Amino acid sequence: ALQKHNLMSSLPLNSSDIHLIVVDCQHDFCHPEGALYVPQGECAVENIASLLKSGKVARVTFTLDWHPLDHCSFQPQGGQWPVHCVQYSRGVALAESLMDPNLLPSLHPTFVTKGANRDQEEYGAFAQPSTEELALLQSGKVVVCGIAGDYCVLETLRNVLKVRPDAQVFMEGIASIDGGIALNEFMTKHQIERFQ
Question: What is the reported pLDDT for 29?
Fold first, then answer.
């Protein structure tokens, strides 16, 4: 689902303006006390925060895992994951270092939620993009980063590439459960460029 309060509030970006898509940099994934902490998640977040503050990024889109308490992916429901990123809990909160009231308004932030359907696993954002989401993905030079590289980042990237085959990846802004193996293999196979 697209939270579109800021979606149409800015002028279209030039093709060279960086549009950073930040995948699931939420408390439960990037904080050592999070329910599904990904090793080096906090380092990835710090690198993303540095990029956002560098002046190189013109627009940012945050994807958020947004699960009901009884989501099918949770172990109590027979799924493979511990309970995580439950709607309206601390676990869904965007990483604190990415929350900057002095900076974010100038980057026209948009928030895209996923995983709200209790009966459906949804690793990637933009699986079935709406008209507004398609317009969003056409905006600027798309660069993807976030957590976890082998699940939500990989599947979001796969979906983004259907619309933007020129999308790049900010490797320093990624943490993976498998240490990066699956994402690196996917990028090599599809000749995806690394954002420098």
Answer: 98
CA 53/CA 147 separation, integer angstroms: 19
CA separation for the pair 44, 148 (Å, rounded): 10
Per DSSP, which regions of 24-117 are E strands? 57-65, 110-114
Q: Which helix (H) or strand (E) holds 158?
A: helix 152-163
* Per-block mean pLDDT, blocks of 10 residues, the chain (196 long): 48 79 98 97 97 96 97 96 96 95 93 94 95 93 98 98 97 97 97 95
3 state SS of 76: helix
Which of these, 114, 136, 140, lies nearest to 127 by C-alpha position?
A: 114
Residue-level pLDDT at 8: 44
Distances in Å between the Cα of 77 and the Cα atoms of 5, 18, 70, 119, 178 are: 34, 40, 7, 10, 24
**pLDDT in the model for residue 30:** 97
Cα pseudo-dihedral 110, 32, 168, 100, rounded to 10: 40
Give the CA-trace dihedral at 14, 18, 21, 25, to 10 degrees.
-150
Quickly tell me which residue has 């699931």 as its tokens. Answer: 24
